[in-house]
Amino acid sequence: MIVLGIETSCDETSASLVSSKKEILSNIISSQIDIHRPYGGVVPEIASRSHVEKIDKVIEISLNKAKISLKEVDAIAATAGPGLIGGLMVGFLASKAIAISAGKPFIAINHLEAHALTPRLTNNIDFPYLLLLASGGHTQLLEIQGIRKYKLLGTTLDDACGECFDKVAKMLDLGFPGGPAIEKAALVGDNEAFNLPKPMINRNNLDFSFAGLKTAVMNHIPSPISKKNINDMAASFQRTVGDIFCKKIDRALLSFYKKYSYMPNIVISGGVASNQYIKKRIDDLSIKNNIKLYAPPKSLCTDNGAMIAWAGIERLNLTPNIFEYDVDVNPRWQLKDVSLHEE
Ligand code: KG4
Ligand code: ZN
After folding, report:
1. How many angstroms is it from 331 CA to the middle of ligand 1?
2. C-alpha 114 to ligand 2 mean position (Å)
3. What average pLDDT does this structure show over 44-57?
4. What radius of gyration do the chain's Cα atoms show?
5. Which stretch of DSSP H or E encloses residue 260?
6. Which ligand has its closest atom nearest to the C-alpha of 84?
7. Nearest to 130 by CA among 148, 151, 158, 103
8. Cβ atoms within 10 Å, residue 97
């Protein structure tokens, strides 16, 4: 089975062809980073317009690169939410139109579900696993029990982790997008230079809060600021995020163990999962607990069409014929809304 996956929920226009044998036949990603850079963040109106300009070409290139004709595509999957409404509509309606005109199955994909399942495209991972989903819009810990069986364990009460990376980078004048810029600056910084707070770390739950950390960075920035200060702050901030994640994951592992008498493997996904320092911290934690950490390669951590196509394949494996022609975009679609059951 070959599925065409289309992603336009934020600032990447992407189309990809993926087979049920886990082959990524093409994964074309047209990034809008350069267009949004002068504004220091994604401008929704500009993003929608750019998706309109690019979508046809990106789909065409994706089919050509894979040497696949539309006739040979078994189903079309497109992001329906969550995300920016304008961008979602462009990709979703274009995909729906292609599916209807070609009479193909059409699957409305939840973007978070796609992030949650991507590591199964690149690795053979069994259920259940503990997932840290950390992107520009979400920071959640979930127990992934199976396809459409997602138990939310904890979530951010304010800013998402990626959003916090972006805002801190802006404060440090490191540019956009913030995550990779902080990671680069942190390589040459002292991660003990600043002692930043870890909001909610001692609360006996699995929720996060990043707004306070962002404000603390603002309050700790020396004036005037030197290049060394910037690198040290980037490193200290990144280390603090690592500390927070490790503490919460540790707690999640413990409560999983209490419930099932064994430890689950850990999966990290979403844009922040492409951060090598964060990945290493969580990897060290998994080694300590004698379990495995799985993370998609960098190119599949940030938004891409392959993860959408793969989520479509997982859905089709569960329910062979899906024709969601009457489904609409949902900019606020939560992962718990697609869960078939919750314990
Ligand atoms: O998953 P994603 O591409 O889009 C959303 O669904 O939000 O995640 C984008 C977010 C941005 O906030 C970006 O700064 C962050 O992921 N990010 C990173 C890194 N690369 C991207 N954060 C930390 N370190 C990185 N290397
Ligand atoms: Zn994403």
Report:
1. 18
2. 8
3. 98
4. 20
5. helix 227-260
6. 1
7. 151
8. 12
Residue 260 predicted with pLDDT over 90 = yes
Average pLDDT, the chain: 96
What residues contact 142, with CB distance under 8 A and at least 6 apart?
116, 130, 131, 133, 150, 151, 152, 153, 335
Residue nearest to atom 8 of ligand 1 (CA): 271
Tens digit of each residue's pLDDT (9 = 90 or more) over 198-255: 999 999 999 999 999 999 999 999 999 999 999 999 999 999 999 999 999 999 999 9
CB 174 within 8 A of CB 189: no
Quote the CA–CA distance of 243 and 44 in Å, as a whole number.
33
> Which residues does a 6 A CB cutoff place in the pocket of ligand 1?
10, 135-137, 162-163, 165-166, 177-180, 183, 270-272, 274-275, 302-303
Nearest CA to ligand 1 atom 16: 271
What are 25-41's pLDDT values in tens digits?
999 999 999 999 999 88
Indicate which atom in ligand 1 lies nearest the CA of residue 303: 3
Decide: 161 and 243 in contact? Cβ < 8 Å: no
- Tell me, in angstroms, the distance from the centre of ligand 2 to residue 115's CA: 7
pLDDT of residue 341: 63
Task: Report the predicted TM-score, pTM, of the whole model to 2 decimal places.
Answer: 0.94
Distances (CA, A) of 307 to 5, 70, 264: 7, 19, 23
CA of 73 to the centre of ligand 1 (A): 30
Q: Which residues contact 168 (CB under 8 A, 6 or more apart)?
A: 178, 182, 214, 217, 233, 234, 237
Give backbone dihedrals phi and psi of 108, rounded to 5 degrees, phi first. Answer: -85, 115
Tell me: pLDDT of 342 over 60. Answer: no
CA distances from 285 to 110, 127, 261 (A): 29, 20, 18
